[in-house]
Amino acid sequence: MDWSDNVSVVLVEPQSAGNIGAVVRVMKNMGLSRLILVDPQTELTSEAYHRACGADEILDGCGRFGSLLEALASFHLVVGTSSRNVPWIPGAYRPSELAEHLVALGDQKVALVFGSERTGLTNEQLNHCRLLVTIPTNPQFESMNLSQAVAIVAYELYQRVESRPLGRRMELAETTDLERLFAHLEQCLLEIGFLDEDNPHRIMATLRQVLSRAGLEERDVQILRGILRQWSWYAGSLKSTKDTKRAKADQS
Hints:
By secondary structure, the protein is of the alpha/beta class. It is about 50% helix and about 10% strand. It contains eleven helices and six strands. It has helices at about 5, 15-30, 45-50, 55-60, 70, 95-105, 125, 145-160, 175-190, 200-215, 220-250; strands at about 5-10, 35-40, 65, 75-80, 110-115, 130-135. Helix 2 links the parallel strand 1 (about 5-10) and strand 2 (about 35-40). The longest helix is centred in the C-terminal third of the chain and has 34 residues, at about 220-250. It is elongated. The mean pLDDT is about 90.
């Protein structure tokens, strides 16, 4: 894995400039250079640069986005972090387990997403994550400082970056293509009445995770969308035939 170029730390709604600086220091310790800020609630003040301890270039070059979905558009794999149970993402990884999984993927663009200091990642934000990593902590005091959480996950990954898997590397689909697939699937399921029109997201949240766990490659997404297009055509054809028969019956 090309560690520095392919793995990005994404901070969602960070509250403290000092915490951002501390995260940047940890990133440089562990060979990371790509930072993305999503709707930051603070400016990069002198405190951020002071806490960065010389990793100024990461702060200067960080990306900024107004929404998480926009920030994740070009990534192949999105890993969310949370200390709480997330029912629709079963099998949360420990940081060491995540590291073993990621090095097997080869040179894929990976986003490590961390929530705000105040709330962590919300359910809506976690819905865009394909994997979940949880740092085992004392259940009576689970909340960690943002930079400490980044440090633990980054450390475990950095220890394994020299591992090189054999065989063909996977070409995971980008998040934008996956979101289009999910939207297409939801549309088709609504057309045949499988989803509740008033609450389609209840089942879609589960279906999104089923497909996310499959580790879909670009060609997989293209094939599935081709199936959905044929599905829509066939469903429309059946409806048209039924309407024609009903009209003839009414005329007779």
